[in-house]
Each structure stands twice: as structure tokens, then as C-alpha cells.
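hi! just following up on the protien thing from before. the input was this:
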Amino acid sequence: MAKMNWAQLLNTDTFDNKQEQAARPSYVIAADRITFSAPFRRLANKTQVHPLYDNDHLRHRLIHSEEVASVGRSIGMRIGSWLAEEKYIASEDAHKIAGVVQAACLAHDVGNPPFGHSGEEAIGKWCSEQLHGGFRAFQGIASDRWHEFEKFEGNAQGFRILTRLEMYRNEGGMCMPNAVLGAFMKYPMGAETSKRLKQNKSQNDLYVGAKKFGFFESERPYFEAAAAAMGLIQARGPDDKGWWRRHPLVYLVEAADDICYNIVDLEDGYSAGDLPCKTVEDLLSAIAIPTKRNQDGYTEYERISYLRARAIGGAINACVEAFNDNHDAILDGSLSDSLIGVSSKAKDFEAIKDLAHAQLFTAPRKTRLEVKGRNVIRKVLDGLCPVYEELAQRNWNEDALPDYERQLVNAVKLDLRDVSDAYTALHSMTDFVSGMTDRYAVQVSDMLSG
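and the predicted 3d structure came back as:
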């Protein structure tokens, strides 16, 4: 069976082919570019799990991304040292693992729309209605591209931001190193391929990288170039466009995300008053590195914070062990699970997920937010449609827009530079709406509804 090799996998060339600066490696530049980008800053006003209320201790997506990057860097340092010790990589390359993973972790949520996953669903449902006979501006899109709108995917939008929209627009975007793009790409295939693989496989037999899709067709060339440079294993898809096995560092980014959102959701659940202290303590204790520290005199909040830190450490240990044990399967692309899923802590994390689905994801405050979010997003999409309808009637000439539509474009700073047909028009709209913060989406909804 073919295997990927680490020398290629750690390719840090960039789209613009600029030479790496010795004092500042390309993956450090990548992390800096992400950190200083507008899409990253906007995560500060996007919901993580719990609604953004008055409690300042609750996480939003920016804090979550920073925490994931911290955990990912720690995992990467451990894995890098192990790979060097086992002679899979040169000792001087060990630091690359942590740097690449940290940059990919910072970017992992950058494409998520307002109001969390309910925002994705709202955008997808609205787009599906248009593709099946809604607004005329979006008629004529090839049917093999419908799925990327009907199942709108924040991961693919994130890749679009990294490679096209932000910084050097249409010229490689932020010009991420190939290894960072590889570590970012959890689902290395297009929407139609993912759809057909799911139709042809049972859920148990479906490859872990096919559960969603990771890029839109408009950005396929960027990923194809990066995948070739890194030597990712390619398979043939049912649509013959092909798909790839995951880059090994995807498992580290995914593990860092799994660790953070599961463990800190419990801490936030306690802070928000949705979970009792004893329940949280019991779940965290099952994962935490054992301690003999006397916690007498600690407040409940202090005990949970301490356990959360120990639990993150225990989860990191379990994921590092799982990576080492499954290294060969990861390199030949046959591992079809997460590191958490094949780790010694798998059952403990399942217990956390079960509780979250039963008590956190159905909490009344969260449900109210999701209902409001869906309605807000629909109002924004409906309200912006006259712009695209008029554009379509005027052969996509922005200068020919009537007065009201021109005012609307100026009022929300709608970017129409790349709109030339129905496909690019719908991407323009989803670029705008998915980039909104929760708060700005509400403001624009109020403006459009009068």
C-alpha cells in the first residue's frame, strides 16, 4: 500500500513561491497573517456553543480558536519530538510540526457563519430554495455545484478565505504554506464527491474525510496544487474528479478542536448555569491527569478550572499515544477515525458528547438563539437579493444598478468585484453573509426589514 512521506508532507512552499525567511519561517508568517486578518477578528462576535450573554467567562469563537491553537501546538511539539526520535523526520524539522499545526488551528473556524452550525443550515436551506426555482439571479448554476450551496460548509468557506478572498485576492489569498493548507483540510474533496460517496457507502464504511466537503469547485485548483506538492494519496471519486486521503497533521488539528470544545463546553456549561458542579467534576475527572493536590478551600469554579486544565493534559497524552500507535495507518491513509475516537479516552469523551446533546445543545437560551439566528439570516439573504436580481438583468454590470440597489451595496459594503454569472453571484452572497458577526447580522436584518 502506498504511503505518504514526511519530507513531502512538511512542504512549506507557498502559492506565491517566495523564499522562506530564515528568521521567520513561512508557517509563522501564516499564523501571523491569520491572527491579524479581519475574518479572524470577527470570530470574537460569533457564537461558539453558548449564546454570547453578559457572562464574560463564556467562550466565543475567537477565544476557542486561540485555545485550540494552544492545545494543537502542545500536541505538535510532542509528535514532532517523537517523529524525530523515531527517525521519521530530521531533528531540525521537529519544530515544523508544532508551527504548522498551530497555524492551521488558528484558521480552523475562520469560515464559520454567524450563529454557529444553525447559521450553516439556514444558509444552505435558503440556497436550496433558490436553486429549485427561487430568485432568477441564481438560476442556471450547473447541478453538480448545487450541493456546495445546499449543504453550505464553513470548512470550505474557510479554505476559500485562506486561498482566495483575504489579502491577495484571487492571487492565492493569504498564500499559506502547503503544509498548513494540508493540516487545515479535514475533508479533502469537493461537495459533489462527498455527496456521492455518502450515497454509495454506509455511515460505518464512509471514510472519515468524506463526512463533509472541504473546498468549493472554485478553489479546487488551489488544493490540487497543494496536494500534489505534499504527495497526498489520491483516490478516484465517483464523479472522477478525485479526492485525497487526509494529511497526517489534520488528525492533530482535529484532536485539538475535539479536546477544547468537549472539555471547555463543560466548563462553560457550569458557568452558564446549565450544568451542576458535581456532573462536570465527574466527567472531567475521568479524563484528567491524576493529582494529589489538596483542593480544600477551592471554590466550585476554581475546582472546575483546575480539573479542566488537568483534563486537557490527560486528553493530550491520550491523543499523542493514539497517533504513535496508528502512525502507519495514518501515513497510508487507512485510518478512518479521529485520534480521540481511537484513544484510551474514547468512552469518556462519548459520555461528554452524550451529555452535551442532552442538556447543552437543547438549553432554552441556545434554542432561542438558533431560532432567531435562522430568521435573521433569511431576512438578510432575502433583503440582498434585489441587488443580484438587478445585476442579472443588466448582464452583471455593477455600474448599471438602479439607485436603491446602489445604496444598498454602499450601505453594507457588498463586494461585487468577481460577480459575472449566477455561480459567482451566489458565492458573493454567501461570502458576505457567512462573514458577518452575530451582532452585525442582526443590525443588517433590522435595517433591511425597516
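The first helix runs from residue 6 to 9.
The domain at 6-114+152-248 is CATH 1.10.3210.10 (Hypothetical protein af1432).
cheers
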